[in-house]
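User: Trypsin-like peptidase domain-containing protein, Streptomyces jumonjinensis:
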Amino acid sequence: MTDSDSVIDALTRAAVVHFASARPEEPAMWGTGFFVAPGWVLTCAHVLAPHLRGDPGRVFQLSGSEVNGGEPLDARLDHWLLDGEPAAQSVPVEADLALVRVLDSGVEHECVWLTDRTDHPGGRGVVQGYRPRADRRAVRWKATARINGFDDDYGMRFVPEAEFPKGGSGSPVLDVHTGSVVGVLKSRRAGRDGGMAIAATALRRFGPVYQRLMAAHDRWHGQSPKITGHNWIERQHQLPGAGVHTGGDQWSPRDRREALALLSSVPPPDGIRPVAELAKKARGSVAAPPGQLPPHAWRDGHGLLYEAGRPVAAIAALHYLQLVVEYERDRGGDPAALADWVAHRLQDVSRIVHTVVTQASLPPGIGRPAGPSGLSRLGVRYPRLGDGSAIVIVELEPVADAVAPRFYWRVRVDDGHDLNEPLHEEQHGDGVPPERLVRRLRGPLAEVFASVDSPGTPAPLEVALPAEHFDTAVHRWQLTEMARLHHPAYIGVRRMVVLRDITRRGEPDAVWVRRWREMERSGALTAVRTPPPRQVPRARHFEEMGPSAVPVLCRPAGSGVGRRAMRMALDAGYGVALWHTDGHPDHGCTDFCERLHDGAARFLEQAADPLELPDRLRRIRDDISGSRNGGHWAEGVALLYDDPDRPLPGDGGGPVDSP
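Assistant: Predicted structure for Trypsin-like peptidase domain-containing protein:
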């Protein structure tokens, strides 16, 4: 099939807009974008960057011939994948997306259907957007081109047979085979045919914002038709990419619409692994074909349920949905609407395979193992005083008067017995420089871990050191140079790793204990940006925070503003905090900071109590390691977890003098 569906073409056109300055004296259009969810417009970051440089909060306008009667709407950048101030040179494919929000939330408009599939599309695509006329006003254009090549994970190349005009960047790329938007036009070849687009899967790099965006997209389409009286799904039902629909055993675009709309109301998964494992089990324990990007949302798992470009059988899709139901029930949720729909839709499937769904159970290692009380819980809770679990503690004491930083060290085990007795230590000589600490500690830690690890449950590691050294990226330590293939080398991926303040030795003070008790009783934890935006840290900020507050710093805690803020947090009794160990721009926060604060807020609010935090962070690190996502908000994040019920033993000393 080479021609696109005329109705889907019209629906796409109705969702397309162009951008311009809000100032009448600047009429030139900037580029193209398109609505993907109510109030959300997707475009290329490089379309907006030249106009928002130095003022990313600037209000501008967008217009579409079939949006708001053709009248302009005020809008503002919400998020983009650029890290920091936009550079003058070209933007890499993986960073060239931006999300714009319309300021008037009451405006109705069409939204495109974004593919849920992860595999690269091929074949013919239709691109339509706006281009500037000679008088710099915008006019519509449309081109058909064949996708015949790919560039890394997110780049799609077109056969040089169609010319893309200036101003077309940000236009939607429609796959005529499936009737889904699969990409965003990025660039044209100057003076020549052909160009490049960004795959829609790059949206996953927005992290938690992606989850919210796609939930809004799927809810909107679940209630369509909207503005035009037509809808995407009914037209997709007639296209080759929808597969054959002769009965209830096949999975149709209508089924997909209902399923994704219901999945949008289920809280997001706890990382990549649950989605991938549930989709794998639904596929008969066969992993998706290689080369597909990791799934971040429940809809992404549904997108793995395709074979040779066609949807899998209905029983496999229903199996996946039921596994999501079981997963959500396991973590205390009640996805009743999804469960009811699965049960109803199952009646249209041959009864001989019903037990695949009705007896669905979570894969091993997914879900909440039973705790001592018999209640299930998500992941592993951190050990508490008297529960018999072992924790390995490394104390790093700076050598006083050393010209360059050097440490004395000791290794202890807190298992409820003889905590004051170090198992290994080096408390004399010149000390160990930071770059040699890991090599020096490998042998002692390997011996201790071999003694205290339980099968399937590695003992946690606590590293106690002064706050000015809190940016030591302990979670990246590798305690073996040649790890087994099934064992991750990074210690923060394999086991829970937290930091403690070594100056809090001995009997805990009343402020620390009171703050910890209030946090334990407060329920859901709340991330608090520290210091507040465009303010210097002050002691009252920390003293006035509520009991559920957890300070979150998007900057290092061992130097500059972060060091001052962390010192105030410790003085105010905080035992839990998060911070970024890898530096911070000199001239204010960047978009990465927003992603970090957004991710940290979600991370904290999903925890039932503080005891879940260390293992939740470990599982996020496991996902980062598996997906090799170096830009993830948590990749450089450290966790302070300093329980006053288990204080470090006092030794009556401060920094040790260098001989």
